[in-house]
User: What shape does this take?
Amino acid sequence: MLASIKRTGAIAQRVLQQLRHDHRFLALSLLMPMAIVYVLFIFFDSLSNPLFNATPYVLPFAAFEIHFITFILTAIVLVRERVSETLSRMLVNGYRQSEIILGYLIAYTVLATLQSLIVLVEITWLFELDYAFGALASMYLVIWLLAVISMALGILISNFAQTEGQVIPFIPLVLLPSIFLSGVVLPIDALPTWVQRLSLLTPLYYANELLGPLVRGDALGHHLAALGALPLYGLLVLIIARFTLSQNE
Amino acid sequence: MMTKDMAIEVRDVQKRYGHIQALKGLTLDIAKGQIFGLIGANGAGKSTFIKLLVGISKADQGDLRIFGLDPNKHLAELRQQIGYMPQSPALYEDLSAADNLRFFGRAHRLSQLNSHVEEALDFVELSQRADDPVGNLSGGMRQRVSLACALVHQPRLLLLDEPTAGVDLKLRSAFWRHFKQLAEQGTTILVSTHQMDEAIHCNHLAIISQGEIIANDRPDNLLLRGRATVRIWRKGKPQAFQFEHYPEELAALLHAQGLDKEVQRVEIEPSSLEEIVLNMLEPSQDIQEIKDARLN
Assistant: This one.
Protein backbone atom coordinates (compact mmCIF):
# COMPACT_ATOMS: atom_id res chain seq x y z
CA MET A 1 0.00 0.00 0.00
CA LEU A 2 2.74 2.44 1.04
CA ALA A 3 4.82 1.43 -1.98
CA SER A 4 1.82 2.08 -4.22
CA ILE A 5 1.29 5.55 -2.71
CA LYS A 6 4.99 6.27 -3.25
CA ARG A 7 4.82 5.20 -6.88
CA THR A 8 1.67 7.31 -7.44
CA GLY A 9 3.54 10.23 -5.87
CA ALA A 10 6.52 9.59 -8.15
CA ILE A 11 4.28 9.81 -11.22
CA ALA A 12 2.51 12.97 -10.00
CA GLN A 13 5.88 14.54 -9.22
CA ARG A 14 7.28 13.63 -12.62
CA VAL A 15 4.24 15.04 -14.46
CA LEU A 16 4.43 18.27 -12.42
CA GLN A 17 8.14 18.49 -13.22
CA GLN A 18 7.29 18.22 -16.91
CA LEU A 19 4.55 20.84 -16.61
CA ARG A 20 6.96 23.19 -14.86
CA HIS A 21 9.40 22.88 -17.75
CA ASP A 22 6.74 23.64 -20.36
CA HIS A 23 6.31 27.38 -19.82
CA ARG A 24 4.34 27.97 -22.99
CA PHE A 25 1.83 25.26 -22.14
CA LEU A 26 1.44 26.60 -18.62
CA ALA A 27 0.95 30.17 -19.81
CA LEU A 28 -1.59 29.15 -22.46
CA SER A 29 -3.46 26.91 -20.02
CA LEU A 30 -3.91 29.81 -17.61
CA LEU A 31 -4.37 32.71 -20.03
CA MET A 32 -6.76 30.99 -22.45
CA PRO A 33 -9.58 30.49 -19.91
CA MET A 34 -9.20 34.17 -18.90
CA ALA A 35 -9.44 35.31 -22.52
CA ILE A 36 -12.55 33.17 -23.11
CA VAL A 37 -14.27 34.62 -20.03
CA TYR A 38 -13.48 38.09 -21.33
CA VAL A 39 -15.05 37.26 -24.72
CA LEU A 40 -18.11 36.02 -22.82
CA PHE A 41 -18.21 39.32 -20.94
CA ILE A 42 -18.10 41.32 -24.18
CA PHE A 43 -20.86 39.10 -25.60
CA PHE A 44 -23.21 39.64 -22.65
CA ASP A 45 -22.24 43.28 -22.43
CA SER A 46 -23.30 43.88 -26.03
CA LEU A 47 -26.68 42.33 -25.16
CA SER A 48 -26.99 44.74 -22.24
CA ASN A 49 -30.55 45.50 -21.57
CA PRO A 50 -32.10 46.54 -18.26
CA LEU A 51 -34.54 43.62 -18.51
CA PHE A 52 -31.87 40.98 -19.19
CA ASN A 53 -29.99 39.53 -16.26
CA ALA A 54 -26.94 37.57 -17.43
CA THR A 55 -26.10 36.17 -13.99
CA PRO A 56 -28.00 32.84 -14.25
CA TYR A 57 -26.20 32.07 -17.53
CA VAL A 58 -22.69 33.09 -16.58
CA LEU A 59 -21.89 30.36 -14.07
CA PRO A 60 -23.20 27.44 -16.16
CA PHE A 61 -21.08 28.83 -18.98
CA ALA A 62 -18.04 28.98 -16.70
CA ALA A 63 -18.71 25.35 -15.75
CA PHE A 64 -18.85 24.37 -19.42
CA GLU A 65 -15.59 26.19 -20.11
CA ILE A 66 -13.83 24.41 -17.25
CA HIS A 67 -15.28 21.06 -18.36
CA PHE A 68 -14.02 21.71 -21.90
CA ILE A 69 -10.54 22.91 -20.97
CA THR A 70 -9.73 20.32 -18.33
CA PHE A 71 -11.10 17.45 -20.42
CA ILE A 72 -8.83 18.39 -23.31
CA LEU A 73 -5.83 18.81 -20.99
CA THR A 74 -5.71 15.13 -20.16
CA ALA A 75 -7.30 13.61 -23.27
CA ILE A 76 -3.94 13.32 -24.96
CA VAL A 77 -1.57 12.52 -22.09
CA LEU A 78 -1.74 8.75 -22.00
CA VAL A 79 -1.78 8.50 -25.79
CA ARG A 80 1.44 10.47 -25.86
CA GLU A 81 2.95 8.01 -23.38
CA ARG A 82 1.68 5.07 -25.42
CA VAL A 83 3.11 6.41 -28.69
CA SER A 84 6.52 7.17 -27.18
CA GLU A 85 6.56 3.74 -25.44
CA THR A 86 7.13 5.39 -22.06
CA LEU A 87 3.84 3.77 -20.98
CA SER A 88 5.29 0.30 -21.69
CA ARG A 89 8.45 1.31 -19.90
CA MET A 90 6.51 2.47 -16.84
CA LEU A 91 4.53 -0.78 -16.73
CA VAL A 92 7.62 -2.94 -17.22
CA ASN A 93 9.37 -1.10 -14.39
CA GLY A 94 6.46 -1.91 -12.10
CA TYR A 95 4.22 1.16 -12.13
CA ARG A 96 0.62 -0.08 -12.01
CA GLN A 97 -2.27 1.21 -14.12
CA SER A 98 -4.13 2.70 -11.13
CA GLU A 99 -0.95 4.50 -10.04
CA ILE A 100 -0.41 5.94 -13.51
CA ILE A 101 -4.00 7.22 -13.73
CA LEU A 102 -4.04 8.68 -10.21
CA GLY A 103 -0.57 10.17 -10.60
CA TYR A 104 -1.68 12.03 -13.70
CA LEU A 105 -4.94 13.11 -12.10
CA ILE A 106 -3.16 14.49 -9.02
CA ALA A 107 -0.62 16.43 -11.08
CA TYR A 108 -3.15 17.94 -13.45
CA THR A 109 -5.48 18.75 -10.55
CA VAL A 110 -2.91 21.34 -9.48
CA LEU A 111 -3.33 23.06 -12.84
CA ALA A 112 -7.12 22.62 -12.91
CA THR A 113 -7.40 24.08 -9.40
CA LEU A 114 -5.72 27.24 -10.65
CA GLN A 115 -7.81 27.34 -13.83
CA SER A 116 -11.13 27.01 -11.95
CA LEU A 117 -10.04 29.67 -9.48
CA ILE A 118 -9.01 32.11 -12.21
CA VAL A 119 -12.27 31.63 -14.12
CA LEU A 120 -14.46 32.09 -11.03
CA VAL A 121 -12.56 35.15 -9.77
CA GLU A 122 -12.61 36.78 -13.21
CA ILE A 123 -16.32 36.11 -13.70
CA THR A 124 -17.16 37.48 -10.25
CA TRP A 125 -15.14 40.59 -10.97
CA LEU A 126 -16.23 41.28 -14.58
CA PHE A 127 -19.92 40.54 -14.08
CA GLU A 128 -19.89 42.17 -10.62
CA LEU A 129 -21.52 39.12 -9.08
CA ASP A 130 -22.74 39.89 -5.61
CA TYR A 131 -22.45 36.64 -3.67
CA ALA A 132 -21.33 36.00 -0.14
CA PHE A 133 -17.98 34.25 0.31
CA GLY A 134 -19.73 31.03 1.38
CA ALA A 135 -21.79 30.91 -1.81
CA LEU A 136 -18.72 31.59 -3.94
CA ALA A 137 -16.79 28.86 -2.10
CA SER A 138 -19.67 26.43 -2.78
CA MET A 139 -19.63 27.37 -6.47
CA TYR A 140 -15.88 26.89 -6.52
CA LEU A 141 -16.19 23.44 -4.96
CA VAL A 142 -18.68 22.38 -7.65
CA ILE A 143 -16.56 23.75 -10.49
CA TRP A 144 -13.41 22.22 -9.03
CA LEU A 145 -15.06 18.81 -8.70
CA LEU A 146 -16.26 19.13 -12.28
CA ALA A 147 -12.69 19.94 -13.37
CA VAL A 148 -11.25 16.84 -11.67
CA ILE A 149 -13.98 14.62 -13.14
CA SER A 150 -13.52 16.06 -16.61
CA MET A 151 -9.82 15.23 -16.39
CA ALA A 152 -10.66 11.67 -15.34
CA LEU A 153 -12.94 11.50 -18.38
CA GLY A 154 -10.08 12.79 -20.55
CA ILE A 155 -7.78 10.06 -19.20
CA LEU A 156 -10.49 7.47 -19.88
CA ILE A 157 -10.93 8.39 -23.54
CA SER A 158 -7.18 8.51 -24.06
CA ASN A 159 -7.21 4.78 -23.25
CA PHE A 160 -9.19 4.12 -26.39
CA ALA A 161 -6.80 5.80 -28.80
CA GLN A 162 -3.60 4.31 -30.15
CA THR A 163 -2.42 7.55 -31.75
CA GLU A 164 -2.81 11.23 -30.90
CA GLY A 165 -4.97 11.68 -34.02
CA GLN A 166 -7.45 9.08 -32.81
CA VAL A 167 -8.22 11.22 -29.74
CA ILE A 168 -9.65 14.04 -31.86
CA PRO A 169 -13.00 12.36 -32.78
CA PHE A 170 -13.61 11.68 -29.08
CA ILE A 171 -13.42 15.36 -28.19
CA PRO A 172 -16.65 16.52 -29.91
CA LEU A 173 -18.28 13.21 -28.98
CA VAL A 174 -17.92 14.07 -25.30
CA LEU A 175 -18.18 17.85 -25.40
CA LEU A 176 -20.94 18.66 -27.89
CA PRO A 177 -23.70 16.48 -26.36
CA SER A 178 -22.78 17.88 -22.95
CA ILE A 179 -23.84 21.37 -24.11
CA PHE A 180 -27.35 20.19 -25.01
CA LEU A 181 -27.76 17.56 -22.32
CA SER A 182 -26.60 19.54 -19.31
CA GLY A 183 -29.16 22.31 -19.27
CA VAL A 184 -26.70 25.07 -20.22
CA VAL A 185 -28.63 25.97 -23.39
CA LEU A 186 -32.05 24.44 -22.85
CA PRO A 187 -33.83 23.33 -19.64
CA ILE A 188 -33.55 19.56 -19.31
CA ASP A 189 -37.27 19.27 -18.56
CA ALA A 190 -38.05 20.46 -22.08
CA LEU A 191 -36.28 17.44 -23.58
CA PRO A 192 -37.92 14.05 -24.32
CA THR A 193 -37.63 11.58 -21.44
CA TRP A 194 -35.09 9.30 -23.11
CA VAL A 195 -32.85 12.29 -23.85
CA GLN A 196 -33.18 13.39 -20.24
CA ARG A 197 -31.79 10.00 -19.23
CA LEU A 198 -28.84 10.51 -21.55
CA SER A 199 -28.04 13.71 -19.70
CA LEU A 200 -27.02 11.55 -16.72
CA LEU A 201 -23.95 10.58 -18.76
CA THR A 202 -22.42 14.04 -18.76
CA PRO A 203 -20.77 15.40 -15.60
CA LEU A 204 -21.83 18.88 -16.63
CA TYR A 205 -25.44 17.87 -15.89
CA TYR A 206 -24.61 17.16 -12.22
CA ALA A 207 -22.63 20.39 -11.93
CA ASN A 208 -25.51 22.43 -13.34
CA GLU A 209 -27.99 20.70 -11.05
CA LEU A 210 -25.97 22.27 -8.22
CA LEU A 211 -25.00 25.59 -9.81
CA GLY A 212 -28.63 26.44 -10.67
CA PRO A 213 -29.81 26.53 -7.03
CA LEU A 214 -26.53 28.18 -5.91
CA VAL A 215 -27.03 31.00 -8.44
CA ARG A 216 -30.56 31.48 -7.09
CA GLY A 217 -29.12 31.87 -3.60
CA ASP A 218 -29.83 28.40 -2.23
CA ALA A 219 -27.30 26.71 0.11
CA LEU A 220 -25.20 23.76 -1.06
CA GLY A 221 -26.21 21.92 2.11
CA HIS A 222 -29.74 21.50 0.69
CA HIS A 223 -28.44 19.54 -2.30
CA LEU A 224 -26.15 16.97 -0.74
CA ALA A 225 -27.47 14.14 -2.90
CA ALA A 226 -26.56 16.03 -6.07
CA LEU A 227 -23.22 17.00 -4.53
CA GLY A 228 -22.49 13.35 -3.77
CA ALA A 229 -23.29 12.39 -7.36
CA LEU A 230 -20.25 14.27 -8.69
CA PRO A 231 -17.50 12.35 -6.82
CA LEU A 232 -19.41 9.14 -7.41
CA TYR A 233 -19.44 9.83 -11.14
CA GLY A 234 -15.70 10.60 -10.98
CA LEU A 235 -14.96 7.38 -9.10
CA LEU A 236 -16.87 5.36 -11.68
CA VAL A 237 -14.93 7.00 -14.52
CA LEU A 238 -11.63 6.26 -12.75
CA ILE A 239 -12.55 2.62 -12.21
CA ILE A 240 -13.46 2.22 -15.89
CA ALA A 241 -10.23 4.03 -16.84
CA ARG A 242 -8.23 1.63 -14.66
CA PHE A 243 -9.72 -1.41 -16.35
CA THR A 244 -9.47 -0.05 -19.86
CA LEU A 245 -5.80 0.93 -19.50
CA SER A 246 -4.52 -2.37 -20.71
CA GLN A 247 -1.29 -3.80 -19.45
CA ASN A 248 -1.16 -6.01 -22.47
CA GLU A 249 -1.05 -5.14 -26.09
CA MET B 1 12.34 -29.25 -17.87
CA MET B 2 13.35 -26.20 -15.83
CA THR B 3 16.99 -26.02 -14.87
CA LYS B 4 18.71 -23.58 -12.58
CA ASP B 5 21.34 -22.59 -15.15
CA MET B 6 18.72 -21.16 -17.46
CA ALA B 7 17.65 -17.54 -17.40
CA ILE B 8 14.88 -18.01 -19.95
CA GLU B 9 13.06 -21.17 -20.97
CA VAL B 10 10.45 -21.04 -23.68
CA ARG B 11 8.37 -23.98 -24.85
CA ASP B 12 6.05 -23.90 -27.85
CA VAL B 13 5.00 -20.29 -27.32
CA GLN B 14 2.41 -18.96 -29.75
CA LYS B 15 1.09 -15.45 -30.21
CA ARG B 16 -1.44 -14.19 -32.71
CA TYR B 17 -2.42 -10.61 -33.57
CA GLY B 18 -5.71 -10.80 -35.45
CA HIS B 19 -5.08 -13.00 -38.46
CA ILE B 20 -1.30 -12.68 -38.17
CA GLN B 21 0.47 -15.49 -36.37
CA ALA B 22 3.39 -13.53 -34.90
CA LEU B 23 4.98 -16.47 -33.06
CA LYS B 24 4.44 -20.04 -34.25
CA GLY B 25 5.46 -22.30 -31.40
CA LEU B 26 8.74 -20.80 -30.25
CA THR B 27 11.05 -23.05 -28.22
CA LEU B 28 14.25 -21.62 -26.81
CA ASP B 29 16.65 -21.78 -23.84
CA ILE B 30 18.87 -18.92 -22.78
CA ALA B 31 21.59 -19.75 -20.27
CA LYS B 32 22.47 -17.36 -17.46
CA GLY B 33 25.28 -14.91 -18.13
CA GLN B 34 25.00 -15.22 -21.91
CA ILE B 35 24.73 -12.53 -24.52
CA PHE B 36 22.02 -14.08 -26.62
CA GLY B 37 21.31 -12.59 -30.02
CA LEU B 38 17.89 -12.78 -31.59
CA ILE B 39 18.36 -12.19 -35.29
CA GLY B 40 15.61 -11.59 -37.77
CA ALA B 41 14.15 -9.24 -40.32
CA ASN B 42 11.66 -6.54 -39.34
CA GLY B 43 8.36 -8.21 -38.49
CA ALA B 44 9.96 -11.61 -37.84
CA GLY B 45 8.61 -11.71 -34.27
CA LYS B 46 11.59 -10.39 -32.28
CA SER B 47 9.76 -7.54 -30.55
CA THR B 48 6.69 -9.70 -29.96
CA PHE B 49 8.87 -12.23 -28.16
CA ILE B 50 10.56 -9.56 -26.02
CA LYS B 51 7.17 -8.05 -25.13
CA LEU B 52 6.02 -11.48 -23.89
CA LEU B 53 9.10 -11.70 -21.69
CA VAL B 54 8.60 -8.27 -20.12
CA GLY B 55 4.91 -8.92 -19.48
CA ILE B 56 3.39 -6.25 -21.73
CA SER B 57 1.97 -8.94 -23.97
CA LYS B 58 0.60 -12.38 -23.16
CA ALA B 59 1.24 -15.63 -25.02
CA ASP B 60 -1.82 -17.36 -26.44
CA GLN B 61 -0.28 -20.75 -25.78
CA GLY B 62 2.89 -22.37 -24.50
CA ASP B 63 5.09 -22.21 -21.45
CA LEU B 64 7.49 -19.43 -20.57
CA ARG B 65 9.81 -19.21 -17.56
CA ILE B 66 12.22 -16.52 -16.48
CA PHE B 67 14.64 -17.64 -13.76
CA GLY B 68 12.28 -20.57 -13.30
CA LEU B 69 9.25 -18.32 -12.66
CA ASP B 70 6.10 -17.96 -14.74
CA PRO B 71 5.88 -14.25 -15.70
CA ASN B 72 2.06 -14.41 -15.54
CA LYS B 73 2.16 -15.42 -11.88
CA HIS B 74 5.31 -13.70 -10.61
CA LEU B 75 5.28 -10.50 -12.63
CA ALA B 76 5.99 -8.15 -9.70
CA GLU B 77 8.92 -10.28 -8.52
CA LEU B 78 10.37 -10.59 -12.01
CA ARG B 79 10.09 -6.88 -12.73
CA GLN B 80 12.76 -6.22 -10.12
CA GLN B 81 15.07 -8.54 -12.06
CA ILE B 82 14.36 -7.46 -15.62
CA GLY B 83 15.69 -4.40 -17.40
CA TYR B 84 13.98 -3.50 -20.67
CA MET B 85 15.15 -1.17 -23.38
CA PRO B 86 12.42 -0.66 -26.00
CA GLN B 87 13.14 0.02 -29.65
CA SER B 88 12.44 3.76 -29.42
CA PRO B 89 14.28 5.67 -26.67
CA ALA B 90 11.04 5.94 -24.58
CA LEU B 91 12.23 8.86 -22.47
CA TYR B 92 10.73 12.13 -21.24
CA GLU B 93 12.48 14.70 -23.41
CA ASP B 94 11.70 17.66 -21.19
CA LEU B 95 13.33 16.01 -18.18
CA SER B 96 17.04 15.63 -17.59
CA ALA B 97 18.79 12.31 -18.11
CA ALA B 98 19.17 11.89 -14.33
CA ASP B 99 15.48 12.70 -13.72
CA ASN B 100 14.44 10.08 -16.27
CA LEU B 101 16.56 7.48 -14.51
CA ARG B 102 15.31 8.60 -11.11
CA PHE B 103 11.68 8.30 -12.26
CA PHE B 104 12.01 4.77 -13.66
CA GLY B 105 14.21 3.80 -10.71
CA ARG B 106 11.55 4.92 -8.22
CA ALA B 107 9.27 2.13 -9.44
CA HIS B 108 11.73 -0.30 -7.84
CA ARG B 109 12.48 -0.42 -4.18
CA LEU B 110 16.02 0.90 -4.24
CA SER B 111 17.57 2.04 -1.00
CA GLN B 112 20.20 4.27 -2.59
CA LEU B 113 18.38 5.57 -5.66
CA ASN B 114 20.72 8.51 -6.32
CA SER B 115 23.85 6.40 -6.23
CA HIS B 116 22.15 3.86 -8.55
CA VAL B 117 21.36 6.73 -10.96
CA GLU B 118 24.93 8.06 -10.84
CA GLU B 119 26.35 4.58 -11.34
CA ALA B 120 24.15 3.85 -14.37
CA LEU B 121 24.94 7.20 -16.00
CA ASP B 122 28.62 6.68 -15.30
CA PHE B 123 28.42 3.24 -16.91
CA VAL B 124 27.08 4.69 -20.16
CA GLU B 125 29.61 7.54 -19.91
CA LEU B 126 27.03 10.28 -19.57
CA SER B 127 27.79 11.65 -16.10
CA GLN B 128 28.81 14.99 -17.63
CA ARG B 129 25.39 15.41 -19.27
CA ALA B 130 23.30 14.09 -16.35
CA ASP B 131 21.43 17.36 -15.85
CA ASP B 132 20.83 18.19 -19.51
CA PRO B 133 17.26 17.76 -20.77
CA VAL B 134 17.06 14.60 -22.89
CA GLY B 135 15.58 16.70 -25.71
CA ASN B 136 18.94 18.52 -26.01
CA LEU B 137 20.95 15.29 -26.36
CA SER B 138 21.95 13.66 -29.64
CA GLY B 139 20.19 10.52 -30.86
CA GLY B 140 23.08 8.33 -29.73
CA MET B 141 23.15 9.91 -26.28
CA ARG B 142 19.40 9.30 -25.92
CA GLN B 143 19.99 5.62 -26.67
CA ARG B 144 22.61 5.62 -23.92
CA VAL B 145 20.18 7.25 -21.47
CA SER B 146 17.63 4.63 -22.50
CA LEU B 147 20.13 1.86 -21.76
CA ALA B 148 20.95 3.50 -18.41
CA CYS B 149 17.21 3.55 -17.55
CA ALA B 150 17.10 -0.20 -18.18
CA LEU B 151 20.14 -0.68 -15.92
CA VAL B 152 19.28 1.62 -13.03
CA HIS B 153 17.93 -1.16 -10.77
CA GLN B 154 20.81 -3.50 -11.67
CA PRO B 155 18.68 -6.25 -13.23
CA ARG B 156 19.87 -9.84 -13.66
CA LEU B 157 18.28 -10.02 -17.09
CA LEU B 158 18.52 -7.31 -19.71
CA LEU B 159 16.13 -7.36 -22.66
CA LEU B 160 17.25 -5.05 -25.43
CA ASP B 161 15.02 -4.51 -28.44
CA GLU B 162 17.26 -3.37 -31.29
CA PRO B 163 19.42 -1.22 -29.01
CA THR B 164 21.79 -0.14 -31.76
CA ALA B 165 19.25 0.73 -34.48
CA GLY B 166 20.23 4.09 -35.96
CA VAL B 167 23.39 4.29 -33.84
CA ASP B 168 26.74 5.24 -35.41
CA LEU B 169 29.63 2.79 -35.57
CA LYS B 170 31.63 4.29 -32.72
CA LEU B 171 28.72 4.25 -30.32
CA ARG B 172 27.73 0.78 -31.46
CA SER B 173 31.11 -0.55 -30.49
CA ALA B 174 30.79 1.27 -27.13
CA PHE B 175 27.41 -0.41 -26.60
CA TRP B 176 28.88 -3.85 -27.22
CA ARG B 177 31.70 -3.06 -24.83
CA HIS B 178 29.06 -2.23 -22.20
CA PHE B 179 27.10 -5.42 -22.92
CA LYS B 180 30.22 -7.58 -22.59
CA GLN B 181 31.11 -5.86 -19.32
CA LEU B 182 27.62 -6.55 -17.97
CA ALA B 183 27.72 -10.18 -19.09
CA GLU B 184 31.07 -10.60 -17.32
CA GLN B 185 29.38 -9.37 -14.15
CA GLY B 186 26.77 -12.11 -14.55
CA THR B 187 23.94 -10.27 -16.29
CA THR B 188 22.08 -12.27 -18.92
CA ILE B 189 21.46 -10.21 -22.04
CA LEU B 190 18.93 -10.89 -24.76
CA VAL B 191 19.50 -8.56 -27.65
CA SER B 192 17.45 -8.42 -30.81
CA THR B 193 19.02 -7.03 -33.93
CA HIS B 194 18.97 -7.20 -37.66
CA GLN B 195 22.58 -6.06 -37.96
CA MET B 196 24.62 -9.15 -38.76
CA ASP B 197 27.97 -7.55 -38.01
CA GLU B 198 26.82 -7.25 -34.40
CA ALA B 199 25.62 -10.81 -34.11
CA ILE B 200 29.18 -12.05 -34.03
CA HIS B 201 29.60 -10.44 -30.56
CA CYS B 202 26.95 -12.74 -29.09
CA ASN B 203 27.70 -16.03 -27.30
CA HIS B 204 24.69 -17.63 -28.89
CA LEU B 205 22.35 -16.79 -31.74
CA ALA B 206 18.80 -17.66 -32.68
CA ILE B 207 17.61 -16.81 -36.15
CA ILE B 208 13.90 -16.04 -36.20
CA SER B 209 11.86 -15.89 -39.37
CA GLN B 210 8.09 -15.47 -39.65
CA GLY B 211 7.60 -16.34 -36.00
CA GLU B 212 9.77 -19.46 -36.06
CA ILE B 213 13.31 -20.21 -34.91
CA ILE B 214 15.15 -21.51 -37.95
CA ALA B 215 18.60 -21.77 -36.38
CA ASN B 216 19.84 -21.76 -32.80
CA ASP B 217 23.59 -22.11 -32.35
CA ARG B 218 26.89 -20.47 -31.44
CA PRO B 219 28.12 -17.96 -34.05
CA ASP B 220 31.23 -20.05 -34.84
CA ASN B 221 29.05 -23.09 -35.49
CA LEU B 222 26.79 -21.06 -37.72
CA LEU B 223 29.82 -19.88 -39.69
CA LEU B 224 30.63 -23.54 -40.42
CA ARG B 225 27.31 -23.79 -42.23
CA GLY B 226 28.56 -21.43 -44.90
CA ARG B 227 30.20 -22.17 -48.19
CA ALA B 228 33.38 -20.77 -49.66
CA THR B 229 33.85 -19.44 -53.14
CA VAL B 230 37.27 -20.11 -54.67
CA ARG B 231 38.22 -18.09 -57.75
CA ILE B 232 41.12 -19.08 -59.91
CA TRP B 233 42.28 -16.31 -62.27
CA ARG B 234 43.77 -17.23 -65.63
CA LYS B 235 44.51 -14.74 -68.40
CA GLY B 236 42.77 -12.01 -66.41
CA LYS B 237 39.56 -14.03 -66.07
CA PRO B 238 38.26 -15.67 -62.90
CA GLN B 239 36.68 -19.09 -62.70
CA ALA B 240 34.60 -19.60 -59.54
CA PHE B 241 34.07 -22.84 -57.57
CA GLN B 242 31.93 -23.36 -54.52
CA PHE B 243 32.75 -25.60 -51.54
CA GLU B 244 30.90 -26.76 -48.47
CA HIS B 245 34.17 -27.42 -46.57
CA TYR B 246 36.92 -25.76 -48.52
CA PRO B 247 39.95 -26.66 -46.29
CA GLU B 248 39.46 -30.34 -47.22
CA GLU B 249 38.20 -29.83 -50.75
CA LEU B 250 40.57 -27.13 -51.98
CA ALA B 251 43.55 -29.42 -52.47
CA ALA B 252 41.54 -31.71 -54.75
CA LEU B 253 40.47 -28.73 -56.82
CA LEU B 254 44.00 -27.46 -57.19
CA HIS B 255 45.18 -30.94 -58.21
CA ALA B 256 42.39 -31.22 -60.77
CA GLN B 257 43.00 -27.72 -62.12
CA GLY B 258 46.77 -28.11 -62.32
CA LEU B 259 48.68 -25.14 -60.99
CA ASP B 260 50.31 -24.07 -64.25
CA LYS B 261 51.91 -20.73 -64.96
CA GLU B 262 48.70 -19.36 -66.36
CA VAL B 263 47.23 -19.20 -62.84
CA GLN B 264 47.72 -15.60 -61.81
CA ARG B 265 45.74 -15.45 -58.65
CA VAL B 266 43.71 -17.66 -56.27
CA GLU B 267 41.01 -16.08 -54.09
CA ILE B 268 39.17 -17.80 -51.27
CA GLU B 269 36.06 -16.08 -49.98
CA PRO B 270 34.22 -17.83 -47.13
CA SER B 271 30.59 -16.87 -46.55
CA SER B 272 30.04 -14.18 -43.98
CA LEU B 273 27.53 -14.69 -41.18
CA GLU B 274 25.24 -12.29 -43.01
CA GLU B 275 25.27 -14.45 -46.14
CA ILE B 276 24.70 -17.62 -44.13
CA VAL B 277 21.75 -16.06 -42.34
CA LEU B 278 20.35 -14.61 -45.57
CA ASN B 279 20.60 -18.04 -47.11
CA MET B 280 18.68 -19.51 -44.18
CA LEU B 281 16.01 -16.85 -44.49
CA GLU B 282 15.72 -17.31 -48.24
CA PRO B 283 16.93 -20.84 -48.92
CA SER B 284 15.76 -20.75 -52.51
CA GLN B 285 18.31 -18.07 -53.24
CA ASP B 286 21.84 -19.17 -53.91
CA ILE B 287 24.59 -17.43 -51.94
CA GLN B 288 26.23 -16.44 -55.18
CA GLU B 289 22.99 -14.82 -56.33
CA ILE B 290 22.78 -12.87 -53.08
CA LYS B 291 26.37 -11.68 -53.55
CA ASP B 292 25.76 -10.79 -57.16
CA ALA B 293 22.59 -8.94 -56.30
CA ARG B 294 24.48 -6.91 -53.75
CA LEU B 295 27.31 -6.14 -56.17
CA ASN B 296 24.85 -4.91 -58.76
Remarks:
- Chain B has eleven helices and twelve strands.
- The longest strand of chain B covers residues 6-17.
